[in-house]
Amino acid sequence: MVHRLGFFVLALSAPVVANDFQTYIVGGEDATANWPWAALVEIDFGAQGRGACSGSLLSPDQVLTAAHCFFDENGQQVDASAITVHVGSAPNGPNSTHAADIYHLHSGYDNTANPIGNDIALIQLSSAIDVSPLPSLVDGAHFDELLTRDAPGRDEALTAIGWGATTTDRNNQAISPTLQQVALDYVPFSTCNQSWNGFLIPVQSSVICAAELNPQDNEIENTCLGDSGGPLILGDDPAPYIVGLTSFGSADSCQGGRPTVFTRVLNMVDFVEENVPLVDVSVNSDPQRYYGSPGGQVTVPATVTNGSLRNTAHNVVIQANTDDASADASLQWSDCGSGGLLAGNDQCTLTSPLTAGADSSGQVEVNHNGATETDATLTLEVGSDEDEYRIKNNQAPITVVFSNRSDLTVSAEQTAGHLDSDGQGIATVAVRVTNLSTVNAANDATVALTLPAGTTARGDDTVQCDTLCWVGPMASGASADFTLTLTSGTPETGTLTLTVTDQDGEDFPQDNNQHDTAVSYSGGNARDSDGGGSGGGGGSLGGWWLLALAGLALRAQPPRRNNRSR
């Protein structure tokens, strides 16, 4: 049985037979005021009662939710007049209430023949809402980064948000009076599809899966009735990337027997652009760190791109600002007219519309008054007449350093770990020291080590180490690699802290001088502690989980919709 995560009945083909679709967040926590763009979608089904789904305000008058929410128990599609949307993350009463003018379903969604693919809808509200910040549809780079994470990196990498029921008791389920959120682990498609007996193969390109694989105290943590259409976001950023929309789960009263299936929004961008004139205008500069001498000038190249698939951006405005009064920014952009020289101006408008896929390049001149060294943040910002579906890409913060000192940084990764014949732990760690400054050399770079208790360290033939590693002079832009060998008489997982500095004058700025890495002696590579999963629940997809999925596959439990709460 497939359960929708709204409130509903749906028929599916074998091997997963469907009915009773539902979704809610169980085992989560209150999210009041955290997500001002969260939406509760109420649907009047007449004699059948009222249903509810969750959603997200994507632009001032567009709400993103699930397509299956708009069909009654007889498979009949409701009229837009039956829809009421409440926007805001406060308890139900204080949220602003809006009627729907019209709504659009994905053309590939078929509530009868193909109800689990392309499960996405857009609701156009009768009036615009001034909410900031707004979420963004995930872009390819951030989505790919999620897909390639190792097991620790997938642990609680995602957050599901919704107004659904908060109990697995089917006789006591109702819309939550308070918006809920729950941290979930990303589940790779191959594992998710295995647990669904291959049922997801036909819709692979339009789905993504998540679950809590190792909940604390065995508490159920999942989406459920009323959460359908609610967002699955990266991390817990208040202006996040949305990677999925709650669609369906296994028919186990939302107890998490199988990973919940979400609509993959990255592949739904064309649907969004086809139905509303939203665009994806972004600005970037590569690299994101530039250097000059005090009293000097730094030229920062930048590019504005319309990443839209079909929509044109009109009156594209570019702005450049710094957070330091000693550093003044001015735009030089040929597409802005005036011969491309706009000295003293920090804003310009492109003279021509930016069509889908087009870009415009220019530069920003940053001048320093020379009073004192500084690391100013130059913020480039872009906008247009059209609303955006990736507003998160509209800003690019760039560090501009005016200094006569080097800028050192250090990184490390464990490459091996084992126990020797005496039971001592032996671990090797690859270390890289880099002078990021493109104008200043380091005279005497060193790396101080803070070792786990009972641990000693030695370097290699190139860099000598004990608790201090002597790297020596480093030219501007240069890197130095060496290997640390750690020996522990108490071989337990610990943290190695590395701190780099220039002994002759230190370096500037010191925002990137320290790095922590986890060290283990179990024979596997450890993951950097500043790049891994969060603490608490979650965990890797070990053999126990695969065995559990195999057992579920044999039972062939049908799926669950999460869209309605009676």
TrEMBL record:
UniProt keyword annotations, A-Z: Disulfide bond, Hydrolase, Protease, Serine protease, Signal
Domain Peptidase S1: 25-277
SUPFAM superfamilies on file: Trypsin-like serine proteases (SSF50494)
Bias (Polar residues) ranges: 510-520
Leader sequence residues: 1-18
Annotated segments matching region Disordered: 501-537
Xref: PANTHER family: GH08193P-RELATED (PTHR24260:SF136), PTHR24260
Record-given protein name: Serine endopeptidase/trypsin-like serine proteinase family protein
Species: Alcanivorax xiamenensis
Classification lineage: Bacteria, Pseudomonadati, Pseudomonadota, Gammaproteobacteria, Oceanospirillales
